Amino acid sequence: MQNRRRQRIRALKIKRIKELATTEGKNLMCQRRCTVEAVFGTIKHTMKFREFLTRGRENVANEWNLVSAAYNLKRLMSLSA
Q: Considering the entire predicted model, what is its pTM?
């Protein structure tokens, strides 16, 4: 069971690497870096959010919702100013 799962994950990784090697894949990754990863960088660096303080999936989801709301409010205030 475990071995089959590893093989499946490895096959998916290889497929993903091949997809990203194309010019279309490189363009998509460039676009992702510009839009998504800046948000996580801001949350980690500016807001100093490095790890979750709670345990359990539901509690972590609630904590992430609070972090997301704080980021959105911060962004809203900077855009309206």
A: 0.60
CA 49 to mean position of chain CA atoms: 14
Residues with Cβ < 8 Å from 42, sequence gap 6 or more?
71
- How far is Cα 54 from Cα 33, in angstroms, rounded to an integer? 29
Q: Are 43 and 49 in contact (CB under 8 A)?
A: yes
The answer to whether the CB of 71 falls within 8 A of the CB of 39 is yes
Which pLDDT tens digit goes with each residue over 36-72?
A: 788 888 999 999 999 999 999 999 999 999 999 999 9
- 31 burial level (CB within 10 Å; 0-12, 13-18, 19+): exposed
